[in-house]
Design brief:
This protein is an alpha/beta fold. It is globular and about 60 Å long. The strands form 2 sheets. It has a 7-stranded mixed sheet with strand order 6-2-1-7-8-10-9. It has a 3-stranded antiparallel sheet with strand order 3-5-4. It contains 10 helices and 10 strands. Helix 2 packs antiparallel against helix 4. Bound molecules: S-adenosylmethionine.
């Protein structure tokens, strides 16, 4: 086995991340950024360094999975869901299930929860719940804690901040329990091609697939098709595209916001 493969095996053993499923170029670039930061020249040297230095684990994991996110990132997408998509589902079905796939530290699912909470305060007997998943256990722990720096709240309004966050003494903000209890976090690897359930009304998987190969992206779209109930919505990242091979699985609802509807 060469040095690069040996390093990938160590990464899989330490973090449970299967680098072999990702594009090799992508992994090599991410590893290079960490190796440069530590002034290390060979994969073998970096593998030894990783085994001996626990403080390299977190930065490497972040470099490989890129957890960057924000509350209400890409506001037009949230606005479309709030005004056009949530109300008819809630009115007609009295029930809404949303899956935030690749949820990182929780900003995305909590943003949806804030909007659904506000939408349903004037509705009677509606049942809604959000399932949020990620491959990274450490980031999921942070998501469950629900404590955020002011910088991630740029698009949260004053009123939302007052009603749904508690200001902490150290200047950070914690999501209040009435929002926290509506989001269920669980570990899930999107490469496994198995949906966590098959009755979602909306699946949001945004800014997750940048390092997936075309085949992995297509498999993911087919998996989401299985995970949605008839007429369900699939929300992609603003700079992501539906591959030609899977175009027939969805019709476009909002091309700019990358919102699609499941075809039967
Ligand atoms: C850039 S964040 C996106 C967060 C949020 N969806 C947003 O758009 O703001 C990408 C997340 O995808 C997760 N991720 C990467 N590969 C994954 C996989 N195979 N299965 C599940 N989650 C994955 C990463 O751990 C990271 O938290």
């Amino acid at each position: 086995m060469d040095e690069f493969q040996a390093l990938l095996q160590t990464i899989q053993r330490l973090f449970g991340i299967q680098c072999t499923s990702y594009k090799e170029d992508y992994i090599k670039r991410r590893l290079a950024s960490r190796m440069n930061a530590r002034h290390i020249k060979t994969y073998k040297e970096y593998q030894e360094f990783l085994l001996q230095n626990k403080d390299e684990h977190e930065p490497l994991k972040n470099a490989l999975t890129i957890n960057v996110t924000k509350f209400f990132r890409d506001t037009p997408v949230y606005e479309t869901l709030r005004s056009e998509i949530f109300p008819p589902i809630l009115r007609q079905r009295k029930k809404l299930r949303l899956w935030s796939a690749g949820c990182s530290s929780g900003e995305e699912p909590y943003s949806y929860a804030i909007m659904l909470y506000d939408t349903t305060t004037i509705m009677k007997d509606v049942d809604w719940m959000i399932t949020a998943t990620d491959i990274d256990e450490v980031i999921l722990k942070r998501a469950r804690e629900g404590i955020y720096e002011k910088s991630s709240l740029e698009f949260v309004t004053e009123s939302q901040l007052r009603r749904h966050f508690k200001a902490l003494d150290d200047g950070r903000y914690e999501i209040k329990p009435h929002i926290k209890e509506k989001v269920r976090f669980q570990h899930h690897d999107l490469m496994t091609s198995v949906p966590i359930s098959r009755n979602f009304d909306i699946i949001s998987c945004r800014n997750v697939t940048i390092y997936f190969s075309d085949k992995q992206k297509n498999d993911l779209v087919k998996m989401f098709h299985q995970g949605l109930s008839p007429g369900g919505f699939y929300v992609m990242g603003m700079s992501e595209f539906l591959g030609r091979e899977v175009e027939s699985y969805f019709s476009t609802y909002k091309p700019l916001q990358k919102i699609f509807v499941r075809k039967d």
